[in-house]
Specification:
158 residues
Length: 158
């Protein structure tokens, strides 16, 4: 969520407009983000067994949080979404900053709810699936999805 706070702030102050105006800047950020997703996917694949062990997961929470931040912050599409979405709901007769801040706050509140549901789902599934073998396969699946997502992002024209 800190990454989204930063991205919303950047969008509000105008980097979204710069990226929208500069195809080169967008492409560079997109490719860096895609490369990082592929890197993280490979790491998930290679370290699937270590990640499946609860003790190694508990000691790696800080690393996972940093990885989550870097993945979120390196996604230029979030800025593109905010840049495309927010202006549609701005009343030109009112101050834009307060409207953008309100929309950003609502987005962050919804993000908190989504993350909370994700965490609860993970806890419930974690209790249901105690097998290390299952977690190894899930970690490899996550790795594969990240690699495919990064590759798709790298070759997309948008």
């Amino acid at each position: 969520m800190p990454a989204f706070i930063f991205l919303i702030t950047v969008t509000i102050v105008g980097l979204g407009a710069v990226l929208a105006a500069s195809a080169t800047a967008f492409t560079v950020i997109k490719l860096v983000g895609a490369a990082y997703l592929i890197y993280v996917g490979i790491q998930f694949w290679r370290k699937a067994r270590a990640l499946a062990n609860a003790s190694s997961l508990d000691s790696a929470i800080g690393k996972l949080m940093r990885r989550d931040f870097v993945i979120a912050i390196s996604n230029p599409k979030a800025i593109a979404v905010f840049t495309a979405f927010f202006p549609q709901f701005i009343d030109a007769s009112q101050p834009a900053w307060s409207q953008l801040a309100a929309m950003g706050g609502v987005f962050l509140a919804l993000e908190v709810v989504a993350v909370a549901l994700y965490v609860v789902s993970g806890v419930v599934l974690g209790k249901m699936l105690k097998s290390e073998r299952v977690f190894v396969h899930l970690n490899r699946l996550v790795g594969a999805v990240l690699i495919v997502s990064g590759g798709t992002m790298a070759v997309s024209r948008n």
